[in-house]
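Hi everyone,

Forwarding the result from last night's run.
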Amino acid sequence: MDAEQIVMLREVLSATGWLERTRDFGRALRVTSRTPGGLLLVGTPGGDPWHLAAHLDDESRLGDAPGLAPTLVRWSPPQDAPPHLSIGLSRLEEARRGETLFVVAEDEAPVPLLERVDDARRVGATVLALDGGDRELEGLAHEALTVPAGEALLSFDGAQHLVSAAAGEEPARGARGLRHRLARLLEAVTGPTVD
């Protein structure tokens, strides 16, 4: 899917709520993925999310966001695979605080994956899930975006494209952080500060 197709998809989905959900999820991905090499992207035994990995890598380069360059974790990497495609599930056992584990599972995540996700969460990794309705996986995730199997307007593949594009977007100019919002709230509650 190229940039023009993403624009068309966004136009089609503009009144459905999907754009807001995928943007929110993409922003969560960008915010939590700040450490180069610390975004661990894993799928299910039936599907490595290599296509999403390529898009996130592009967004990382183009958006000057090194934390978005994913480490693709594969269930069964071939022995002769190049180094960036030879990372197996044992990498999930090394997950730590400050890293993000992004699970992409259109079908139910198998128990061995759920166990590794739970372990990564326990040591402080942030868990994000793009899934097709897996309640167990959603229960382990800090943030989840669910694309139900029968969704007529957005395919699972389309959601991946929207999420990667949203993750690559820089926050709007003039957007302020949590401290500024808290200061505004405090001022609204207590009144302005007088010097």
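The two ends are 56 Å apart (CA to CA).

Cheers,
N.
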